Amino acid sequence: MSELAAHWRWVAAIWIEVTLAYGAYSLYLAARARRAERREDHR
Amino acid sequence: MTEPHETRKRPLWLRGLALVTLVLFLVGAYLALVVSPPDVNQGQLIRMMYAHVAVAWVCFVAVIVTALYGMLFLWRGHPIDDARAAANAEVATFFAGLTLLSGMTYSKPTLNTYWTWDAKLTLTALMFALLVGYFVVRGLIDDPTRRGRVSAVVGIIVAVSLPFNYLAAAWFRTLHPTLSVAVTGVHVAPTMLFVLLFNVGVAGLVYLTFVSERVRIARLELSRSEAEERREGEMGSGEVVHV
């Protein structure tokens, strides 16, 4: 693999990493919000 | 005090903020991956810097806000200040973890190692450990006032470590590069600086979106816990909710 291709692979890795992390935390917050809203509805 | 019962659904402004943040994140990624020129030393790898530095700076902001709400709780004793401090601490922990992870990914192709125990990296790992400790402490204490006070002190300790972390690359021999944008001046090309600041702004919006949603959840949980406390007063003991 050329040096340029190797560099782009690392660049892609960090941006995918950050995007996935944002996505995962958003999903966690959405699930926790749904649970809190449901409990509030039951009250 | 907590929000009235009617506001339990996610408000429109928060949905709007999330949408704007998502669009600007895509613009920021485009700027970093396409518009930014390659660096004279790092070549294309400079495009990793925009992701890592943005996350790291916002982590610092989240830690400072955690400490400020902690101080506010120590001063006023309002449960919502503790809930806000905890919400910020959770988002700060997320950003600290992401700072370490993205830092290791950035470090391997540029410095030929994922990790080294130098001052800067060790202080960042310590900050992450302290933030995890913040939640361990919260889990161990049932009394809400005492829980808020102790975790506020932990939050303030984390914030006190920030100046040392920020200046560690300048003060100590470390693999971590010295500051690109320092108090004394800017050492990067104008286009790169624009792309960097744009991505820092976007990471700031991501932080704002996460923390707003997390505070909304904390308010819902707090209102439930207050209602349970009222019921407890009438009927007996009940479950303690950690926010």
Detailed description of the structure:
The complex is a heterodimer of chains A (43) and B (243). Chain A is an all-alpha fold and 43 residues long. Chain A contains one helix and no strands. Chain A has one helix spanning 3-42. Residues 1-6 of chain B have low confidence and may be disordered. In chain B, strand 1 and strand 2 (185-186) form a beta hairpin. Helices cover 76% and strands 2% of the residues of chain B. Chain B is an all-alpha fold. Chain B is globular. Chain B has a two-stranded antiparallel ribbon. Chain B has helices at residues 12-35, 46-76, 79-111, 119-140, 144-171, 190-235, and strands spanning 181-182, 185-186. Chains A and B meet through helix 1 of A and helix 1, helix 2, helix 3 and helix 6 of B.
Radius of gyration of chain B: 20 Å
On the 0 to 100 scale, the average pLDDT of chain B is: 89
Q: Write down the oligomeric state.
A: heterodimer
Strand count of chain A: 0
Taking strands numbered 1, 2, ... along the chain, how are they ordered across the largest sheet of chain B?
Answer: 1-2
Spans of chain A of 5+ residues with little confidence (pLDDT < 50)? Answer: none
H-E string of chain A:
H
Order of SSEs of chain B:
HHHHHEEH
Could you tell me how far the N terminus lies from the C terminus of chain B, measured between alpha carbons in angstroms?
14 Å
Q: What is the average per-residue confidence, as pLDDT of chain A, rounded to a whole number?
A: 90
Principal-axis shape of chain B: globular
Q: Counting H and I runs of at least 4 residues, what is the number of helices of chain B?
A: 6
Largest sheet of chain A: none
Compute the number of strand runs of chain B: 2
Biggest interface between chains: A-B, 25 and 36 residues
What is the helical fraction of chain B, as a range of percent? Answer: over 70%
> Which secondary-structure class do the elements of chain A indicate?
mainly alpha
